[in-house]
């Protein structure tokens, strides 16, 4: 800084007194702006394909293979610089980049989840009412039910047939495909049934049925003619019968593809930023990171939105088996205590979105502590609810380390919390990973309209999430 612009004593004092995050767009040069927009384009391509946790894992696996990642379980020998993948039930994947130092010194983990709120088909879903065929659903994750009415929905997932064959289903994602709709009630007749009820209650779970057909079979004797016609079509196109739904995982997800939002194209609207934006950033950052001293692992988990249970969730032993396998193949004499010691020395970013201040609902936010769009990746020391219940409360030392790393490397970051005290709350996978005695902090992109079918993020925040995760991998 030139002599005449030297900061006054008072300005220096102010800097010490105040924390203030900065709007990235006002700070960066043209080159960085180009980086931000290019990253946004890549992310939209990814999000267009990654409509479910299975499709997300498929995308990651395809791209990891293109980058030379090999199947961990098939590897005979492991050396620093080698890269591997390990897939769990097509819904959970780990990417591994072996570091130069002894793995027993700990691993740098970035963990994100690929599941997102949606409507799952019930196991016996198909019914007919008023000569309309309907698919009954059970919502997954925390949704506001009214947001899922009157929007085009696609059906994605798998059906396992009576011959034990897996059929992949994808209806509604391609141009020209039919879509599915849950129609709302017309305002002319909703006065008693909806309008006078509380917002949380006016749409009942059992009314979330997808319209899926209206043409009957031409057979006078059959009662449910439209339902039968739908089943005939499904059998013709996919070779499935009604009972096959029992062994199926079919999800109704919003069809709308990600789009730039705003005259300035600063934002991206899209389904499932929570948490495919963290998934994308965690995957791209390990793809692009240099081989570090420490081993790097991106872990993409499932079932975060419903409490991280089950074999593909963050509570599963999958990651222990992955790390155990790596240690086995590196040293040929791994023991349980080496594995536990490795986890204990590990550092982990729980890559997860946080709620950004909503200009129309500022009353629920603590404007000093909550995050803002375009102010960078959000460090969240603790989540939880009420008196910090069910929170991973990151150590000051670890928060300090990540903050120091980000500052040193020009990563735009900000602090974030989850609204005013007692306003609500929530959790992430952080507490489950912390139970392995690793140091864990929540760190991700701020979102407006979280858990809606079309959420909003800033391209600038996405870019610095990717950059920040890369710094963490290489230098933490
Ligand atoms: Mn999330
Ligand atoms: Mn969520």
Brief overview:
The protein is of the alpha/beta class and 476 residues long. 29% of the residues lie in helices and 23% in strands. One manganese (II) ion (MN) is lined by residues 274, 305, 451.
User: Largest sheet, described in full?
Assistant: 9 strands, mixed
How many domains is the backbone divided into?
2
How many beta strands in the DSSP annotation? 22
CATH fold description of the largest domain: Aminopeptidase
Low-confidence stretches: none
Name the hetero compounds present. Answer: manganese (II) ion
Across the major sheet, the strand order is 1-2-3-13-4-14-20-16-18
Shape category: globular
Terminal CA distance? 30 Å
Helix content class: 25-40%
Q: What's the pLDDT, averaged over the residues? A: 95
CATH architecture of the largest domain: 3-Layer(aba) Sandwich
- Which structural class matches the secondary elements? alpha/beta
Furnish the topology, listing elements before pairings.
Layout: H1 9-17, H2 24-27, H3 30-49, H4 53-66, E1 70-71, E2 83-88, E3 92-97, E4 107-113, E5 118-129, E6 132-140, E7 153-160, E8 166-171, H5 191-195, E9 209-213, H6 225-238, E10 248-254, E11 259-261, E12 267-270, H7 273-288, E13 295-301, H8 318-331, H9 336-344, E14 347-350, E15 354-355, E16 377-380, E17 384-385, H10 396-408, E18 413-415, E19 425-426, H11 430-434, E20 439-444, E21 446-447, E22 455-458, H12 459-475
Parallel strand pairs: 1-2, 4-13, 4-14, 14-20, 15-21, 16-18
Antiparallel strand pairs: 2-3, 3-13, 5-6, 5-10, 6-9, 7-8, 7-10, 11-12, 12-22, 16-20, 17-19
The protein binds manganese (II) ion (2 copies).
Residues 274, 305, 451 line the site of one manganese (II) ion.
